[in-house]
Amino acid sequence: MSHTRILVTGGAGFIGSHYVRTLLGPDGPDDVTVTVLDSFTYAANPANLDPVCDSPRYRLHAGDICDPAVVDGLMAEHDQVVHFAAESHVDRSLHSATEFVRTNVLGTQVLLDSALRHGVDRFVHISTDEVYGSVPEGSTSEEHPLHPNSPYAASKAASDLVALSYHRSHGLDVRVTRCSNNYGHHQFPEKIIPLFVTRLLTGAKVPLYGDGLNVRDWLHIDDHVRAVELVRTRGRAGEVYNIGGGTELDNRGLTELLLQACGAGWDSVEYVADRKGHDRRYSVDWTKAHVELGYKPQKDFTEGLAETVAWYRDHPEVWKEAARRAVLPGGRQ
Ligand code: NAD
């Protein structure tokens, strides 16, 4: 049987590893092989890939997406790319944007150049709803102008545009996804849900930004990974697909749920100065993914959150070490 050889960048991180475990798991397609390319930054966790490390259809390559020699060597042996690798934490980009521009913009361009050179037949670029900026009301379609506010969001918007330019200029089959806030197990404990859960489970206080009324749409990792597969297998070249989760919550409401789940009270919450340039609300319109690809989020948020909290409660050996690496000046969500 002929196999599709997929290069997955950032496959040791939260979403990338979930994608790889799903592709190579019992319900995944049996006609794909996967190579993970990851430079193992602080956000990577080798243990995320333990469940697939013995699969004959899996290979790991430690390397940097910004290194053309590394990328070129691998690209020659692959048919498709699913590109998750990025610096992904907004707070870190406010502290220093250098790595964000390097990895997210330059790294993406290095991959695209190499994909073009080697005639790769599909390049799925994973982006974010943050590229649209704050959305006071309604939801942004894929046609909405990009208005990124943080250096992180700006670097992702830049990489989206570079990726789409390789389709428009060179005809490379590029597909872009823009998803909302992911949650689930194996997430590095710096973003709000794993940060708050791991702190509450160890009796520490949690920092809530500003008035706590910033709104996010929550997308379970299983739904996101299913959507990425739909885009890879059924999407169209040159198109952007928004991926939403269907549960809008402000941070105060989310905090209340997390306090309940961890058996803590509001005395565990410390209101702290707001994040610079903090977008008030994100909301993507995912009608296009629904109509064209049949995408619909399936995970009930209450159930997904309870499972996530239970996973952190049951796996301190995975996140305790990671939490030590989550050191960030004022690092929060
Ligand atoms: P993550 O921070 O958990 O993982 C990123 C991975 O990329 C890590 O394994 C890291 O080692 C790797 N990496 C970083 N720089 C690299 C480089 N130069 N070369 C090779 N590998 C490198 O991120 P995540 O939460 O899994 O996010 C994955 C993608 O999804 C990112 O592109 C992010 O922008 C996007 N996204 C994430 C969310 C979310 O809620 N987590 C929401 C929207 C979009």
TrEMBL record:
UniProt EC number: 4.2.1.46
Record's catalysed reaction(s): dTDP-alpha-D-glucose = dTDP-4-dehydro-6-deoxy-alpha-D-glucose + H2O
Keyword terms, alphabetized: Lyase, NAD
All copies of domain NAD(P)-binding, residue ranges: 7-308
Pfam families cross-referenced by the UniProt entry: GDP_Man_Dehyd
Originating species: Streptomyces lusitanus
GO molecular function: dTDP-glucose 4,6-dehydratase activity
InterPro entries xrefs: dTDP_Gluc_deHydtase, NAD(P)-bd_dom, NAD(P)-bd_dom_sf
Listed cofactors: NAD(+)
Protein name (database record): dTDP-glucose 4,6-dehydratase
Family: Belongs to the NAD(P)-dependent epimerase/dehydratase family. dTDP-glucose dehydratase subfamily.
